[in-house]
Write a structure and sequence with these properties.
Radius of gyration: 26 Å
Order of helices and strands: EEEEHEEHEEEEEEEEEEEEEEEH
Helix content: under 10%
Distance between the termini: 20 Å
Number of helices: 3
Length: 397
Amino acid sequence: MSPRNVVFKKMCKDKSVGVYMGRRDFVDHVDSVDPVDGVILIDPEALRGKKVFVTLSCTFRYGRDDMDVMGIAFRRELYLCTRQVYPPLQDREQGIHTTTQAKLLRKLGDNAYPFFFEFPDNLPCSVALQPSPHDVGKQCAVEFEVKAFSGERQDAKTHKRSSVKLMIRKVQYAPQIEGLAPSVETSRDLVMSDKALHVKASLDKETYYHGETVKVHVSVTNNSSKNIKNIIVSVDQVATVVLYSNDSYAKSVAIEEPGDSVSPGATLHKVYKLLPVLANNRERRGIAVDGKLKHEDTNLASSSIIKDGVLKEVMGIMVSYRIMVKLIVGGLMGSSEVGLQVPFKLMHPKPDAVKESEMEEEMEFQEFQRSDLKGMKNDEDEDGNVSGGDDIAPKEK
């Protein structure tokens, strides 16, 4: 069956509430964001007259739960919106916004109710700082969560057995309009040398996709009397935690150091190939990664693109990439460095859009689970939820 027909489901422990969603990734198009939609399936007997609510939240976490001191939590809620699903406050048909919801309601029966949220345009995308292999607990991250729960009222204490949490992602794709290919050059007058050293670095394009090799064109014209002992080319990831400290963490995620040298009066023209991927940085603490739902679909964090007019301070963690070209210059008083930086974007390509009208009637239900990074506690163990089996869904009529 085509993946586009997969429906993700999750059930609370007492089987009173279940959540069905047609997708887990919601795209930030910069000028707009895909809405979050799904269906809640209830068991009226298990609810015993309680109401059912669903919330969409965005949380910035900058410390582990066991670091909380003096009642101060190391996390900040950036957004929270709650809606009552049952008893419905409007006609069920009026709550349907997508074809997927309509098909789910037909399949699940009279005890299913739709929900719908729209993202504000000033929220960050899902991103996290990778912990070390020995770290435990939650990592520094921007996380999005859909939570359904039952209770006498909205602000009543939530019992884990009667609630279900689903981690979702807010993602961005590469812009369809390609910018100019970046190019940077510099000339440097060296000590005790009459002529300058000229260095130029350029890329083939502005945006590269995850898993794609980055080709760096480097030209060196050494008119100086100094010897270039070595050339180092690397891809640096710069993660800036803008919400509370504005600290920046620059880490090399790919590097080439073949030992090239350039003698006085000589030139060098060479293409260096670098592959910035998470697989080569899996054990390194502090590497920014895209918000993850499954271990296999995690990658280096994508470059951040911000809508004009939105304050960067509320973006949580901002990520950018640059090529670093560093020349090691020999001398009588020791070595010195000449370097330059070339910015570029690293993102996913925008997938082909699938029209809901083209979806087949048959749906494949898949358990909604979240496997954390190595060394992280599993989400399932924390909230006590279970993934719904086929017993939650009524037989198809």
